[in-house]
Design brief:
The chain has 2 domains: 4-32 and 278-407, Lyase, Ornithine Decarboxylase, Chain A, domain 1, CATH 2.40.37.10; 34-276, Alanine racemase (TIM Barrel), CATH 3.20.20. It has 409 residues and is α/β, with parallel strands linked by helices. α2 packs across α3 (65-74), α5 (108-116) crosses α6 and α8 (208-224) runs parallel beside α9 (250-264). The chain has 12 helices and 21 strands. The protein has helices spanning 18-24, 34-47, 65-74, 83-91, 108-116, 127-139, 175-183, 208-224, 250-264, 274-277, 310-314, 403-406; strands at residues 4-7, 10-13, 16-17, 29-33, 54-58, 77-80, 99-101, 121-124, 144-151, 173-174, 191-197, 230-232, 267-270, 281-292, 297-301, 320-322, 333-337, 346-351, 361-364, 385-390, 393-398. The strands form 3 sheets. Strands 4, 14, 15, 16, 17, 18, 19, 20 and 21 form a 9-stranded mixed beta sheet that branches. The structure holds ligand LLP. Residues 58, 60-61, 79, 102, 162, 199, 202-203, 234-237, 271-275, 310, 314, 369-370, 374 line the site of ligand LLP.
């Protein structure tokens, strides 16, 4: 998180001390760094310069309208997985010609929306979906640009709950089935097959699965002698949640993709989510209470698993950073927990952590991706506010949900 660091003993986001932000804004809140998002996008773009891909930001990673707008202005398209994300991307000013729509369960309404807005590609994930889109296209007397998402049966070597490219996962169409579909493609006269797409998983830290996937794609393209305009290689690029992760070498991967592009003569699409926003956000929370347990101390935060699900869902480990640093250490073990009535509403256990007091603030690190977008109203808690910093300027980009509106249904 290069844009977040200590200046003296105070933790800063760009040029503003977080303590100062907490004095004016009630916790918990998400805080993003605009310059970190810009850097991430430009870094990604630079790494694949020669490939010159269409970079479709996976809106599910963070679908805040201002963040979509920011990425759109930088030149990003969007990868969406629902009618809601599609409409948000368009509202954020992203050109529909750079929007791809994935997902195994697109409804008729969502397909109609995609057609109405003339998006770049609908990435089809089953034969039944192809039939439905074809039927809608016929009714509308249109030819629809589509891609087929393949399931390459490649192990992304990541957490099993975020693997998507193995045969056992619900995503994409098996190679065998795609052969069948392609053989009978005249049954889908109203679809124009423009692309093949893949997305094998998330938080991927090895380039081997990507390499394997390119191999699978090349094989099928050659076997079927299929002429395509695009290959959508998905997202999945991992980030550093700690110092231990060794990230993918983009230069090596870019070379492979460039070679692949030359062989297939297709334009390349990427769908990065986490890589563009993961390290751009923190979740700032207050120590509400401290309670002595039998063998550890519970630091009860005002943020809960409803605000930030990753630890509860994937046992994800995020650093928790004191907003004001001190050398005073806690001797025993402490565990950060939240207020939600679930045992899994917890954020991490630490030894020798600095002493905290009730009313102190901490920042949960690397919470910019799949943080806010995964949050919920569980326990009838309002969605929290989101702020963005640019240099010294702070902007609220989502207000906290109104509790009194929330209780009406
Ligand atoms: N494209 C498709 C079709 C996807 O399903 C996903 C993510 C992406 C792109 C973006 O993947 P990324 O570049 O962000 O890895 N909630 C989980 C991650 C779920 C990812 C779902 N699909 C987490 O917090 O780790």
């Amino acid at each position: 998180m290069p844009q977040f660091k200590y200046v003296g003993e105070k933790f800063f986001a760009e040029k503003v001390s977080i303590e100062k932000i907490t004095s004016k804004n009630k916790t918990p809140f998400y805080l993003y760094s605009e310059n970190q998002i810009k850097e991430n996008f430009l870094n990604f773009k630079r790494s694949f310069k020669q490939v010159n891909p269409i970079i479709c930001f996976a809106a599910k990673a963070n679908s805040n309208l201002s963040i979509l707008r920011l990425l759109g202005k930088l030149g990003a398209g969007a990868d969406v997985v629902s009618g809601g994300e599609l409409l948000k991307a368009i509202k954020a000013g992203i050109n529909p010609n750079k929007i791809v729509f994935s997902g195994v369960g697109k409804t008729e309404e969502e397909i109609l929306l995609a057609i109405k807005h003339k998006i770049l590609l609908i990435n089809i994930e089953s034969e039944s979906e192809a039939k439905l889109i074809d039927k809608i296209a016929l009714k509308q007397k249109k030819i629809i640009n589509v891609g087929f998402r393949l399931n390459p049966n490649v192990d992304a070597k990541t957490h099993k709950k975020i693997s998507t490219g193995k045969a056992e996962n619900k995503f994409g169409i098996s190679i065998k089935e795609f052969h069948q579909i392609f053989k009978n493609k005249e049954r889908f006269n109203n679809l124009k097959i423009q692309a093949l797409s893949v997305h094998i998983g998330s938080q991927i830290l090895s380039d081997l699965p990507y390499k394997k996937t390119l191999g699978v794609l090349l094989k099928i393209i050659n076997e079927l002698n299929i002429k395509l305009k695009f290959i959508d290689l998905g997202g999945g690029f991992g980030i550093n949640y700690s110092d231990h992760e060794q990230l993918i070498n983009f230069n090596n991967y870019a070379k492979l993709v460039l070679d692949f592009k030359k062989k297939t003569k297709c334009d390349i699409i990427f769908e990065p989510g986490r890589f563009l926003v993961g390290n751009s956000g923190i979740l700032v929370s207050k120590v509400q209470y401290i309670k002595n347990g039998t063998n550890k101390k519970f630091i009860i935060l005002d943020a809960g698993m409803n605000d930030f699900m990753r630890p509860a869902l994937y046992d994800a480990q995020h650093s928790i950073i004191p907003v004001s640093r001190s050398k005073n250490k806690n001797k025993g073990t402490i565990e950060f927990v939240g207020p939600i009535c679930e045992t899994t509403c917890k954020f991490g256990k630490f030894k020798n952590y600095q002493k905290l007091n009730e009313g102190d603030f901490v920042a949960i690190a690397n919470a910019g991706a799949y943080g806010s977008s995964l949050s919920s109203n569980y326990n009838t808690k309002p969605l929290i506010s989101e702020l963005i910093v640019n240099n010294k300027k702070i902007k609220i980009i989502r207000k906290k949900q109104d509790l009194f509106k929330l209780i009406n249904s």
